[in-house]
Amino acid sequence: MVGSSVTTGELRLTNFAIRESRAESITTISRDVGPFRYWTLLQLPNFLLASPVLLFSFAASYTYYSSQPRLVISRTLPFLPSSLLPSSPTVPSMSQRAFLSPSLLPFIHLHTATTLLLLISSHVQILLRLCIPNPVIWWYAADLLLAEGSEGEGRRRWGKRWIGYCV
Q: For position 6, what pLDDT does the model report?
């Protein structure tokens, strides 16, 4: 009697696993979810609408990561020996820019990972809803708007364009 109940239990577990895998495959087929499933020709207008947000998001990440690669790698991978770290030239204006503060590194990592995950596996409208209120984008816009000097004119122009797009 005990042996049959164990066997029955194993069969139930096996049947449950089979039913669960069938449900997952049916869900995937019926809801059309998965990596790059939303990359269709019909979604092109949505991608065009979201392209400023995507470009601005990746520009913020790229600006932060490229401005101080040694700091980013050493804080992200603290176990890495310093001899393997890239040399980074110090730019005097970097310390004056609040957006390039080392304390923002976890936020930049989270923002970049979220944007990539949403781009790959979710609908474009979800990407818009989750990326626009992200503070990294607004910190980057503020950094652009507060740019000084001759090179700052172009950066201020991009900051104003971003504000105009959102309004």
A: 45
Provide the residue ranges of all domains of the chain, joining segments of one domain with +.
1-31, 39-166
Residue 99 DSSP label: G
Cα–Cα dist 60/23, whole Å: 40
- CB < 8 Å & 24+ apart, contacts of 61-70: 61/108, 61/111, 61/112, 61/115, 61/136, 63/99, 63/100, 63/140, 63/143, 64/99, 64/100, 64/104, 64/105, 64/108, 65/108, 67/91, 67/94, 67/100, 68/94, 68/100, 68/102
Query: What count of Cα atoms within 13 Å lies in the side-chain half-sphere of residue 135?
Result: 8
* 48-92 per-position pLDDT tens digit: 888 899 999 999 999 999 988 888 888 888 787 777 777 765 554
Label residue 2 exposed, middle or buried (CB < 10 Å: 0-12, 13-18, 19+): exposed
CB of 43 within 8 A of CB of 124? yes
Q: Which residues 6+ apart lie within 8 Å of 110 measured at CB? A: none
